Fold:
Amino acid sequence: MCGINAIFAYHADAPRVDEKELIQIRDAMKVRGPDGAGVWFNADKRVGLGHRRLAIIDIAGGIQPMRLNDTQLGQLTNQPVICFNGEIYNYRELRDELIAEGHQFKTTSDTEVLLHLYERDGPNLVQRLRGMFAFALWDPQRQGLLLARDHFGIKPLYYADNGKTLYVASQVKALLQIRHALDTELQAAGHVGFFLCGYVPDPYTLYRGIHALPAGSTLWIDQHGNRKQNCFFNLTEELATISESTTPIKAWQEQLRTALINSVTQHLIADVPVGIFLSAGLDSTTIAALIQETGQIELNSVTLGFEEYRGKLEDETILAEQVAQQLHTSHQTRWIKAHDFRSHYQNLLTAMDQPSVDGVNTYFVAKIAAETGLKVALSGLGGDELLGGYPSFRQIPRLVGTLAPFRIIPRLGRGFRIITAQAVARFTSPKYAGLLEYGTQYGDAYLLRRGLFMPWELPKILDPDLVKAGWQTWQPTIQFAKTIEGLTTSRQKIAALELSWYMRNQLLRDADWAGMAHSLEIRTPLVDVQLFRTLAPLLALFPPPTKQDLANVPHTTLPQAVLERAKTGFSVPIRHWIFPNTQPGESGLRGYAKLVYNDINS
Structure:
C-alpha cells in the first residue's frame, strides 16, 4: 500500500520534469507511505516517477521506483521502471512460473514480479493479476507510460493532461499541489454526482482537468501524446456471459467454500501483522471464522462502538465481542462519542480525497486498528453486493414490477412529480414524489433507491446551469441502464448496479482514504476477481446464494444471534452529532453532504 505519482513531459515543447514538483506531489501523500520515499528520472528528464512506501511485503527489498536489473536505480539501464500501489496476491505463483522460464529475481517483492511479467506479456500482464493495484510503468523501449488500475477499482489512480505534460497520482489532492499547471475549473458532473449519490462518480472529479482512470482499465500514452485506453475487466459483460446454471446445491456450496477459503488465505499474505474489523454482521464474522480455521495467523480483531447506539439495535459491540470470544481472537473494543467526531472533523476532511457522505466509521475503526500496531486489516466489504444483503435487492424488483405499466405514459410520472414534490417534501422523503417517474425500470429505480438528493432538488442546491451541464455530461440514468444491459435476472441487475456504483465509488474509495489517513492497509477478501468469477454463475440460480449461505461456509457455527440479526449496516450517528433537529425529508446525511461539500470547497 503506497502513494504513487508520475510526470511525463511528452510534447516537444513541454518543459523538463521539475524535480521539486514531482516531490511536492509525492510528499502530499506521505501518510499513504510513511516508511520510505523514492524518485526516478530518465536521462533527459522527460519522465519522473515518485513513490511513498507503506512496507507490507519484502520490507527490506521492495524499494520503489523499481527496475528489473537495478533496484538501486542507476541511470545507465534501459529497462522498464515502475511505481506501484497495492498488493498482488498471486505474486508467489507468478514468481515461480517466471523463475521456471528463466527469469532471475533480486527481491521477494510483488513489485519485481510486475516488471518481469511486463517483460514477458507487455500491457497484457494485467490479465494475470489477482489483487488490488494501481501502477505507472515507463517503457523506455516503446517510449511510453502505462497506467493500470485493478478490476474493481480498489486502488485509486488519477491523471491530468494539460496538452503537453501528463501528471499522475494516487490522490486528487496531491495533483492539486501544482494546480497552476492544471485545469481546475469545475467539472459539473462531479458536483452533480456528489449531491445525487453522496460520492463523486468515476471517471469524474470536482475538477475539469483531473480524471480517474476507470476500474479494470489501462491507459497507454506515448512520446507523441497518443493515447490508448483499454478495458480489461467489464463487470457487466462478465455477468452477462453467464447462462443459467443447473449446478446442484451441494456442488455450488462446496465451490463457495473453496473460493472463500482461497480468497481469505490469499489476503493474509504479508510480512507484518494482519487484523480484522469485526462487526456483528455475517461478512466479517465469516471471514474471521475462516481465518481461525486456516490457523495461518494469530488474529487481532477490533470493533467500533458509538455511545449513541450503546445497548440499541445498532450496537455492534456485544455480538462482536461474543464472536471474538468464541473464535479466540485478540480483541479490542473502542467507543466513539460526538466529541471525538468533532475533534477529528478537520483531519477527516483533509484525508477525504473527494467529498463523501460515508467513511466516518472506517476512519475511526482504522484509527483504532493502527493504534493497536496493525498495518493491515481485513474488512467484510463486498458481501452485501455479491450476496443480496441490501434492501435494494428486494425493493427495486418489487417497485419495478408494480409500476412497470406506467412506463408507457412517461409524462404522467413527470406530471405527478411536478404537482406533488413540494407538498410531499414537507411530510416525508422527497423520493415519494418521483415514484411514477423513476420507479418503472431498474436503472431509474436504482437512482430513486440510492439517491441522496433527487434530480429536481438539485437546482435549489447548485447553480441551475451547472446542474444541467452535469446531468448532460454524466447522464446517470443512461449509465445505470448500460450497467444492466444483457442481464436477465433481478439478482444480476441489482448486483451489477451495487458493485459498479455504490461499492466502487463509495465503499472502496472511502476504505482507501480512511485507511490511508492512519497508514493502514485495508484488504477486502470478498472483493476478489477470482471469487467473483466463481460466484457470478451462481447469481443466475433460482434462488441464488444468500448471506446465510456465506455464514454456513465456516465449519465453526457462528452464534445464533449473529445468524438471525437483522441487517442494519455499519451506520454512524451523524444525525445525533450534527443535526439533532432535522426536518422531515432532510435526513442527517443530506445535511452532512452540504456541510462536507461546503467545507471541502471553502
The first strand starts at residue 2 and ends at 9. The longest helix spans residues 490-516. Residues 392-491 form one domain.
